[in-house]
Amino acid sequence: MTKPLITDELELLHSLVNLDRNPRIIELGCGAAQLSRALLARFAACEVSALEVDQRQHAKNLLEPASRLNFVQAGAQAIPFADGQFDLALMLKSLHHIPLDLLDQALGEVWRVLRPGGLLYVSEPVFAGAQNEIMRLFHDEERVRAAALRALEKAVTSGAWEQMSEVFFDMPVRYRDFAEFKQRLIAITYLDHQLDATTLAAVGERFEQHMTPNGAYFERPMRVNLLRKLRDN
């Protein structure tokens, strides 16, 4: 079956979650909070608390404040909010970045801060695709992505969550050149990639195989799991 090509994940989110009825949102591992900013621009009733553990990214976020967007420096494994505060939790390519021994704790924390019946939207990259074959030369995420999926499955089988949806799709990604690829995927603040000359050359060579006069184009395979909080512990 051909997977849909989705350019705007906010559209997918809204197709699965009625954002008009879930106004209190927490994003965990928000990065630059691009989706949350777009969400708030479109849905005036929503409010977002955006958590980011990386100090440098959090400082950048504070320099670009937005109405109804509250930035907090914290990780999903220790959420500094009281029980039942949110209708919806977002984890956008962030679950696999949580230390493996803290995955269960983090999902327990998300469960805690959601209201009864609250929703958890988890969007994770699938370990496949041409871009992934470049990335794995310097940052192989096969183990951590598999662990993140197992943690979700464990959470559902525990009886605390119900899985409402699982959606697979491809997301287009473009780079003008290798310099942009390096800036976006190697020179990131939350991971300290120190590539030696040999590795960098190998990454560049594999990237250049995808270059065209219009830059390099990839379709990144993605998976979304939507969970609903079922019961009290």
Overview in brief:
By secondary structure, the chain is an alpha/beta fold. The chain has helices spanning 9-16, 34-42, 55-62, 103-113, 130-135, 142-157, 178-186, 197-208, and strands spanning 24-28, 47-51, 69-72, 86-92, 114-125, 161-175, 211-212, 215-229. Strands 1, 2, 3, 4, 5, 6, 7 and 8 form an 8-stranded mixed sheet that branches.
Can you offer a commentary on this structure?
- The protein has about 230 residues and is an alpha/beta fold.
- It has a single domain, classed as Rossmann fold.
- About 35% of the residues lie in helices and about 30% in strands.
- Strands 1, 2, 3, 4, 5, 6, 7 and 8 form an 8-stranded mixed β-sheet that branches.
- Strand 4, helix 4 and strand 5 form a beta-alpha-beta unit.
- Helix 4 crosses helix 6 (about 140-155).
- The longest helix has 16 residues, at about 140-155.
- The N and C termini lie far apart (about 40 Å).
- The mean pLDDT is about 95.
